[in-house]
Write a structure and sequence with these properties.
This protein is α+β, with helices and mostly antiparallel strands and 576 residues long. It has 18 helices and 13 strands.
């Protein structure tokens, strides 16, 4: 029997098994592999000893190999098998055959480019106060919602000039994710993370075209999209004293309806130290990035920097002004029962804000505050610990030549913390159950884990690679992306609109209420939350009611957009 016939026989057996009661066995990246990338799939069952790869176009068997065993993790004694087909580098579509199952995969030059575009384009769909037009959104077009031109000052936010009940205009910005409220902490973190990665690969983003209303101007689309959020955040600053309101929200979450159908009164709520510092950091960061694009955004860079310094000054004077929803609801009416984004420690926000302001202004007090508030260990980026964003600013490779001795000492320490963290993250990944740094510890699984842990660690590994040029870090960043895209125990590619099996029912009001069968594309769902102690990595439900596992967030998507773009950009840099 020739190779072509062997391939067809294997395929027939695989497809027959797929329709049987046992279900699929193979777990792999459903979006695609770079030619030179490590390529590994996992057989999610015991006893698989060999696998075969067939060229889908020709039917030829191109690879037949033995598997390797993984280690059992802490909640199951199942020993799975890995199938390594890294030797295949020829672009094309292939069938992987093992244990009577068949899975298709693709090798191509830029498999993550569509994902990077979609993850960033997802922010356009989240825009408030403007129609999302068919020209740019296709079937996901919708009329404008929440003009936010008469938002009331909540009693908690009242000041000497703006009184409780006063109407203020605060249009624009992004809906936070699943709900229709707008939060400064979440928005600033999202913009800050994406702008940090933009600084690494500006040439890459200069070529990206998202088909958004601003795509025809001279500014990279990423910065255009960031500006839509930044312009809104500027309206959240109290002009009287520079403090920044924590959030713009209705008193309660809206029902599962479209934005134009919402009717609750909306409020700006209490000025907080964390919102003010995150605002200061991202405005200072933006003031540098937008300088070359003054034609499209005249005066914005200077306005952003001035606003940043005022917000920082307010935060220094009100360092204890944390947002506590319990305290606010006890003291003021109406009660506000939407997402809190409360944080009891602002040290990391002071570090990030002081860092960005130092690089934007060169003023020594900002540098000194950054040094005294600098972390003593690395933590992957997340909304309630922004220290990584400050570290990314200090560790930017292009800034290495201009550092004084005291700055050089700080940078050396920060680099050491990051590399130690990255090295610990990837320990044991070669034999982990799903061949990734993420997913072998029950503590990995919690609400938002795919973004905050899996993607956050992968971004940290990218930075470790750029600082060390150690290929192991980059390999393990790819491994975590493989986990997100399908090499996991549920077999889901956890990004809407991608892969052979992706979420169809995210907890996302826009997707649930629009009457369209497919959800808004490019959204990363939160992932397993560990409720099932017997199988925490399978605690996921693709249901509109599954808020803890199937919700979405701009902060989570910021991580996905940043990681996908970074990996795509690095693949092109290597080719050059």
């Amino acid at each position: 029997m020739n190779n072509k016939l062997i391939g067809l026989v294997f395929l027939a057996g695989g497809l027959a098994a797929c329709s049987g009661p046992k279900g699929p066995v193979i777990r792999l990246n459903q979006v695609g592999y770079f030619p030179q990338q490590e390529k590994v799939a996992v057989a999610d069952t015991v006893g698989v000893t060999e696998f075969t790869v067939v060229n889908a176009a020709t039917g030829e068997v191109v690879l037949k190999e033995l598997t390797a065993m993984t280690q059992a993790n802490g909640w199951t004694q199942d020993v799975r098998s890995t199938m390594d087909f890294s030797s295949l580098t020829e672009p094309g579509r292939y069938w992987l055959l093992a244990a009577g199952d068949t899975a298709e995969f693709e090798i191509k030059e830029r498999p993550l480019a569509p994902l990077a575009d979609a993850a960033l384009k997802a922010f356009y769909y989240q825009r408030a106060s403007m129609p999302v037009e068919e020209t740019y959104a296709g079937v996901w077009n919708r009329p404008a919602g929440h003009p936010d031109d008469a938002v009331q000052v909540h009693p908690s936010a009242a000041g000497p000039v703006r009184k409780a009940g006063d109407a203020v205009a605060s249009p624009g910005g992004w809906y936070d994710g699943s709900d229709y409220n707008k939060y400064v902490v979440s928005s600033a973190f999202s913009v800050g993370l994406m702008q940090a990665v933009y600084r690494l690969f500006p040439d890459y983003f200069a070529k990206q075209n998202l088909n958004i209303p601003e795509s025809k101007n001279a500014t990279p689309d990423l910065l255009d999209e960031m500006h839509y959020s930044l312009a809104w955040m500027l309206t959240m600053q109290d002009p009287a004293d520079g403090g920044v309101y924590h959030k713009l929200t209705a008193a309660e979450f809206e029902e599962m309806v479209m934005p134009a159908a919402c009717g609750q009164q909306r409020y700006v709520v209490q000025k907080s130290v964390t919102a003010s510092l995150d605002f200061a950091a991202v405005m200072a960061q933006a003031s540098m990035l937008f300088k070359p694009y003054a034609k499209d955004y005249p005066g914005f860079a200077a306005k952003a920097l001035k606003a940043a310094e005022r917000a920082y000054t307010w935060a220094v004077r009100h360092a204890d002004a944390q947002y506590d929803p319990v305290v606010v609801n006890q003291a003021y009416d109406p009660d506000i029962n939407t997402t809190a984004y409360s944080d009891v420690d602002a040290t990391d926000e002071f570090f990030w804000a002081a860092t960005e302001l130092y690089y934007a202004t060169g003023k020594r007090p900002y540098r000194d505050k950054a040094i005294t508030s600098s972390p003593r260990a690395y933590t992957a980026p997340r909304w309630n610990n922004a220290s990584a964003l400050g570290m990314f600013a200090w560790l930017l490779p292009s800034r290495a030549e201009s550092r004084e001795a005291v700055q050089a000492a700080l940078v050396s320490s920060l680099k050491s913390y990051l590399l130690v963290y990255a090295s610990n993250v990837m320990k044991g990944s070669d034999r982990a159950a799903f061949h990734a740094p993420f997913g072998d510890d029950a503590a990995d699984f919690y609400r938002g884990c795919l973004a905050e842990q899996c993607v956050g660690d992968a971004l940290s590994l990218v930075y470790a690679y750029l600082l060390s040029e150690d290929q192991r870090y980059l390999t393990n960043a790819y491994r975590n992306m493989d986990y997100v895209l399908g090499r996991n125990p549920t077999g889901y590619c956890y990004v809407t609109g991608f892969g052979a099996k992706s979420p169809l029912h995210p907890y996302h009001r826009l997707s649930a209420a629009d009457g369209i069968g497919q959800p808004v594309p490019g959204l990363l769902v939160g992932g397993p939350d560990g409720e099932n102690e017997a199988a925490p990595d399978e605690s996921y439900a693709d249901a509109e009611t599954a808020r803890n596992t199937n919700g979405v967030s701009v902060g989570w998507n910021a991580g996905l957009a940043s990681l996908a773009a970074a990996l795509d950009a690095l693949s092109q840099a290597k080719e050059e």
